[in-house]
């Protein structure tokens, strides 16, 4: 994860960057096109790009060796669209293109939350978007309490035991990057093939008409 306050030029052709504008406005240039991004917006950019900070602040997360789909979204909503754990909610802002791909998420903690301690099978990179809370993380066999507030970034390493908590008067919102996933479309399970019906049968179950080989595929 990298924070920016100045202009940024990314020259890596075989990487994808996820980003978020935390404050101000920035100008994103990619493949001869330009977009103005404002606080609360996020992006996913494969390959080279430039970012003119224009007094903005934000973060980018890099995935090397993977080509994502270009997208700009936001502003991020206040709460998540999906139920999570312990009354928290989340939204997958940038979906996995294929099952296993990276994703970018909003995580919402209401006031008065004390999460169940848990782990994740891969690293988690986070930016506190608003509010405040506490992360209790296991370190060398002992729990360490880390105060979190808006604008802070953090990393939770794979299999690191932790939980988040908020006081009764404080909620918290976090942008969370996951380098992998266990959901998303596959060649055998995606809306286009599942909902193509031939004489009452889904094309998913009709091997004779299924596309084979990679000649017609874009690959990441």
What topology emerges from the helices and strands here?
Elements: E1 2-4, E2 8-10, E3 15-23, E4 25-30, E5 33-38, E6 42-46, E7 49-52, E8 57-64, E9 71-73, E10 82-83, E11 89-94, E12 103-109, E13 124-139, E14 142-149, E15 153-156, E16 162-165, E17 172-178, H1 191-194, E18 197-198, E19 201-202
Antiparallel strand pairs: 1-8, 2-7, 3-6, 3-8, 4-5, 4-7, 6-9, 10-11, 11-12, 12-17, 13-14, 13-15, 13-16, 13-17, 18-19
How far is the N terminus from the C terminus?
A: 21 Å
Mean pLDDT: 96
Judging by the overall fold, what is the CATH architecture of the largest domain?
Sandwich
**In the CATH scheme, what's the topology name of the largest domain?**
Jelly Rolls
The top-level CATH class of the largest domain is: Mainly Beta
Number of alpha- plus pi-helical segments:
1
Q: Which structural category fits the helices and strands?
A: mainly beta
Radius of gyration using CA atoms only = 20 Å
Total tally of structural domains: 2
The CATH superfamily of the largest domain bears the name Jelly Rolls
Q: Percent helix among the residues?
A: under 10%
Major β-sheet profile: 8 strands, antiparallel
What's the order of the H and E elements? EEEEEEEEEEEEEEEEEHEE
General description of the model:
The chain has 220 residues and is mostly beta strands. It folds into 2 domains: 2-73, Jelly Rolls; 82-178, Jelly Rolls (Sandwich). The protein has 1 helix and 19 strands. It has one helix spanning 191-194; strands at residues 2-4, 8-10, 15-23, 25-30, 33-38, 42-46, 49-52, 57-64, 71-73, 82-83, 89-94, 103-109, 124-139, 142-149, 153-156, 162-165, 172-178, 197-198, 201-202. Strands 10, 11, 12, 13, 14, 15, 16 and 17 form an 8-stranded antiparallel β-sheet that branches. It has a 5-stranded antiparallel β-sheet with strand order 1-8-3-6-9, with no helix packed on it. It has a 4-stranded antiparallel β-sheet with strand order 2-7-4-5, with no helix packed on it. β4 and β5 form a beta hairpin. The longest helix is centred in the last third of the chain and has 4 residues, at 191-194.
């Amino acid at each position: 994860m990298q924070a920016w306050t100045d202009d940024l030029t990314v020259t890596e052709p075989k990487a994808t960057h996820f980003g978020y504008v935390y404050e101000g406005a920035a100008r994103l240039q990619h493949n001869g096109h330009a977009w103005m991004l404002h606080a609360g917006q996020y992006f996913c950019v494969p390959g080279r790009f430039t970012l003119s900070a224009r007094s903005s602040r934000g973060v980018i997360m890099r995935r090397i060796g993977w080509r994502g789909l270009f997208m700009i979204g936001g502003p991020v909503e206040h709460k998540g669209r999906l139920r999570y754990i312990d009354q928290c909610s989340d939204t997958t802002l940038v979906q996995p293109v294929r099952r296993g791909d990276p994703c970018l998420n909003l995580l919402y903690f209401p006031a008065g939350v004390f999460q169940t301690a848990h782990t994740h099978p891969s690293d988690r990179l986070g930016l506190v978007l608003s509010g405040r809370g506490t992360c209790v993380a296991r370190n060398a066999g002992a729990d360490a309490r880390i105060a979190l507030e808006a604008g802070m970034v953090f990393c939770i390493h794979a299999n690191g035991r932790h939980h988040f908590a908020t006081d009764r008067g404080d909620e918290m919102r976090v942008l969370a990057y996951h380098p992998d996933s266990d959901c998303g479309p596959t060649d055998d399970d995606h809306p286009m093939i599942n909902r193509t019906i031939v004489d009452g049968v889904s094309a998913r179950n009709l091997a004779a008409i299924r596309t084979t080989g990679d000649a017609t595929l874009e690959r990441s």
